Amino acid sequence: MIDSGQRIDSTDNYGNSALHILCEAAAHTAREIRQTERRIEGFAERWVSDKQRAETQRELEEQQQEAMRCYMTAGLLLDSGAFDPEEKNSCGKTPFAIASEGGAKWVSALLSGQDPFDEATMKTGGMDIFQALRQRDMEALGALLEAGVDLQQECTDPKMYDFEGQMPLVCALRWGQTEAAAMLLRAGADPNVRTSKGTTAFAVLIEEGCRISDGVERFAPLVELFEANGWNPDAGQNKAGERALALACQHDDYPLAMWILQRLLERKVEVDGRDLEGRTPLMRLFGPHSAGPYQSQMQELLLEAGADPCAADNEGRTVLHCVAEGYSPQQAREAAAMLFDFGRPDVSAADNRGRTPLDVAAERNNETLLKFLLKYA
């Protein structure tokens, strides 16, 4: 048909060309091959008759032959010059995207312009590092790392809107891919590099790791790899200049944040390291949000490590101002009492708006805290 002179570049109602449809078939075959291979692997764990083993092996061989036919047909379609591998169907999918997402690596490598029978390309399927991360393809990622791919590059593909402007390590963490993140770090990814928006990998790590119940198990080992790669927790971790200790304090609901805070204090990080607004980690621990289950323990550890209970930010707001904004009257009172165990905060210190901690407590209708603070007025 290709050599007959008939038109072969027409599309169906969904914008699929013959190349799109072929890639769908190749992806379907690739999925079948993976399923059959898993069945064969499972034979080692249970008894299977020789007949079933032989039938399954024949099934795999037929599927592999079909994969080769898909590859050869894709080559013929490309050679005809009638098809653009970057043409999108009505769903916005290119033939390459369909093949790579389905794991049809021979075809996707061919469409990418690479040699599909090159050993490395057979593993990557022509994908770049961001495509490999998006597909959660550890084999492709490993091959790219072995080939020495640039680990500090930013994704420039606008179609990958959730990856664009970010480095591979940040992308892996953003999607919770801790295995991929570990591979990147072991390959030499620099955790100190910032995205174009000023975000470091740690800022993403603590944000994502504190969203899941097994955050310590999955993300704590990555912090150790960060340290092995020269991570500087005393540098600003986001565009606000907040340091690692301050970010941990803002997640006082989660055991991962508690684990990180303890580890940072063991490393003797700067306990009063300020962000661009002059706020210290102790100040970031408090505020109008509800207190988490680790807040009191975090406060005690910070104060024992030398945190200044009288610190003030660029707006003149002291730690006591932040405590007075507390969501829970009783917890705010307990936090204030602990501050006075380690120093003598000034209850009459006015911020740049002229408000004292007493004023803030009154505005919050926190009579419990107000009565306590008046003893030190």
Brief sketch in words of this structure:
By secondary structure, this protein is mainly alpha-helical. The protein has 19 helices and no strands.
Describe the fold and architecture.
- The protein has 377 residues and is mainly α.
- The chain folds into four domains: 1-121, no CATH class; 127-231, Ankyrin repeat-containing domain (Serine Threonine Protein Phosphatase 5, Tetratricopeptide repeat, Alpha Horseshoe); 241-307, Ankyrin repeat-containing domain (Serine Threonine Protein Phosphatase 5, Tetratricopeptide repeat, Alpha Horseshoe), CATH 1.25.40; 309-376, Serine Threonine Protein Phosphatase 5, Tetratricopeptide repeat.
- 53% of the residues lie in helices and 0% in strands.
- The protein is built from 19 helices and no strands.
- It has helices at residues 18-42, 50-79, 95-101, 105-112, 119-124, 129-134, 138-146, 168-174, 178-186, 201-209, 215-228, 244-249, 255-266, 281-285, 295-304, 319-324, 329-342, 357-363, 367-374.
- Helix 2 runs parallel beside helix 4 and helix 7 packs parallel to helix 9 (178-186).
- The longest helix has 30 residues, at 50-79.
- The protein is elongated.
- The model is unreliable at 1-5 (pLDDT under 50).
Question: Which short descriptors sum up this protein?
Answer:
377 residues; mainly alpha; Serine Threonine Protein Phosphatase 5, Tetratricopeptide repeat; 4 domains; 19 helices; 53% helix; 0% strand; disordered N terminus
